[in-house]
Amino acid sequence: MILLDGKLVSEELKKQIAIEAAEMLEKTGRKPHLVAVLVGNDGGSETYVASKMRNCEKVGFKSSLLRYDETVTEAELLNKIEELNKDNSIDGFIVQLPLPKHIDPDKVTEAIDYKKDVDGFHPINLGRMQRNLPCFLPATPFGIMLMLEFYGIKTAGKNCVVIGRSNIVGSPMSVLMARNANPGNATVTLTHSKTQNLKELTLKADIVIVAIGKKNYLTADMVKDGAVVIDVGMNRETSDVTKSGYKLFGDVDFDNVAPKCSYITPVPGGVGLMTIVSLLRNTLSAAKKEFYN
Ligand SMILES: Nc1nc(=O)c2c([nH]1)NC[C@@H]1CN(c3ccc(C(=O)N[C@@H](CCC(=O)O)C(=O)O)cc3)C=[N+]21
């Protein structure tokens, strides 16, 4: 069993990103600039956004955090997005999800200029991804592809089962694994809450990608010997009343599944770190206008 080390891979990729950011600074006098919009104070979102900002500094990007109270109206948020779209000093921005219930995440996503959509959630980027055209790829699925590539894991012709069909992970993940690219060219089964006999499907899978948000969901009896298991779960359990101490669990029963695997990602230290580095990569691509003018 080989551990897919998100720390190792992300640090390696960040070195290259830092080099390109420094080149850009030298040539143009400016740094790539990412803005994150954070609404409310969800514990998970606070951690992830803080990490995104910290990592921007590490690779020599400029980063700004825009905070809104959870009472902000949808109209106010959409106005701000309009401003960010027009601001030439900003290369890319993200609106951290989830949003409060009174704000429609689809409206927000579609309001973002697709040329600055470094999360890759805009329908134009999703459509271009599906067509195999240059575009911003959604950060988590992109990070998983970079991980597979780094370890030279063959995906062509393999059976891949994706568990969970969210807009930000499962659904785009299934597209990336199926499209005619490398990594890619897998035979993909996208499973969800209405799927019957999931275990029958996962037992045939060479690659299982779990993004469902339930601790210990994928158990050893569901996995075939030698499978590659990618765990996207970020289930936090607070262990004390202060809420500052928490432990993170994936969706995989790691201790029992890992011995059966050829490769497996840990949580923490796996996919989450790759998500961050993908966002950095997308921000650099935005600043260098690699996809759009
Ligand atoms: N607009 C938007 N874009 C996102 O990219 C986005 C989002 N909304 N909402 C939530 C998810 C989740 N996500 C993670 C990022 C980093 C880690 C990460 O760094 N995880 C570390 C540990 C973090 C910890 O200790 O809590 C690890 O796995 O080792 C995890 C999860 C980005 N997301």
Automatic annotation (TrEMBL):
SUPFAM superfamilies from the xrefs? Aminoacid dehydrogenase-like, N-terminal domain, NAD(P)-binding Rossmann-fold domains
This protein's UniProt keywords: Amino-acid biosynthesis, Histidine biosynthesis, Hydrolase, Methionine biosynthesis, Multifunctional enzyme, NADP, One-carbon metabolism, Oxidoreductase, Purine biosynthesis
Is-annotated flag, keyword Amino-acid biosynthesis?
Answer: yes
Residues the record lists as binding NADP(+): 164-166
What does the record give as the reaction this protein catalyses? (6R)-5,10-methenyltetrahydrofolate + H2O = (6R)-10-formyltetrahydrofolate + H(+); (6R)-5,10-methylene-5,6,7,8-tetrahydrofolate + NADP(+) = (6R)-5,10-methenyltetrahydrofolate + NADPH
* All residue ranges annotated as the Tetrahydrofolate dehydrogenase/cyclohydrolase NAD(P)-binding domain in the record: 138-290
What this chain does, per the entry, is described as:
Catalyzes the oxidation of 5,10-methylenetetrahydrofolate to 5,10-methenyltetrahydrofolate and then the hydrolysis of 5,10-methenyltetrahydrofolate to 10-formyltetrahydrofolate.
The similarity comment for this entry is: Belongs to the tetrahydrofolate dehydrogenase/cyclohydrolase family.
Write down what this protein is called.
Bifunctional protein FolD
Q: Taxonomically, what lineage is the organism?
A: Bacteria, Pseudomonadati, Bacteroidota, Sphingobacteriia, Sphingobacteriales
